[in-house]
Amino acid sequence: MSKSVARVEAALAELGLIAEVLRMPETTRSAADAARACGCDVSQIVKSLVFEGADTGELKLVLLGGHHELDMAQAEGIFGEGLKRADPKRVRNETGFAIGGVAPLGHIAPMDTWMDESLLAHDKVWAAAGAPNAVFCVDPAQLAELPNVRRFLQA
C-alpha cells in the first residue's frame, strides 16, 4: 500500500470516520472516471481542487461536486484573494498527494478548505483516497465537519 493511501486510512481512523478505502481496477482521476468506477452519479464525486493564493502564496482546497465547474470569481471571493492552479509538484510536496489522488483529508499540513454544499444533498459521496485509483465513500455531513472546512454554495 502506498504511503499516501495509508495516510488517508490513518486520518479516517483518527477522525472516527467509518469509511473503507477501495482500490479500483481503473483510474478514478476525473469525476466522470470515478463515477463510472464507483457506480454513482457524478454529482456524488468530491473533486479536490488545489489552488495557490495570489497574495499569500498559501495552498487552498475546494471540495466541489463532480458535476460542477468552479466559478473562479466566487472562489476568489470566499478566499479573499486571487487564485491560480497550484503547481502539481508543490501539491505533492505540501499535501502528500499527486493531482488526481488528492484526498479531502490526511494532508501533510492543514489547508484553508471550502466545501460545496451541494454535496450535502447526498447520503454518501466518493472522494479520492491518495492515489489515482483509490477512493472512499463517506457521509458528506462528516466531511463538512472536518477541521478547517467551511461551506459555500456553488453559484
UniProtKB/TrEMBL annotation:
Organism whose genome encodes this protein: Shimia isoporae
Origin superkingdom: Bacteria
Pfam families on file: tRNA_edit
MF-aspect GO terms: aminoacyl-tRNA deacylase activity
InterPro entries: YbaK/aa-tRNA-synt-asso_dom_sf (IPR036754), YbaK/aa-tRNA-synth-assoc-dom (IPR007214)
YbaK/aminoacyl-tRNA synthetase-associated domain: residues covered: 26-145
SUPFAM superfamilies, alphabetized: YbaK/ProRS associated domain
Source lineage: Bacteria, Pseudomonadati, Pseudomonadota, Alphaproteobacteria, Rhodobacterales
Name listed for the protein in its UniProt record: Prolyl-tRNA editing enzyme YbaK/EbsC (Cys-tRNA(Pro) deacylase)
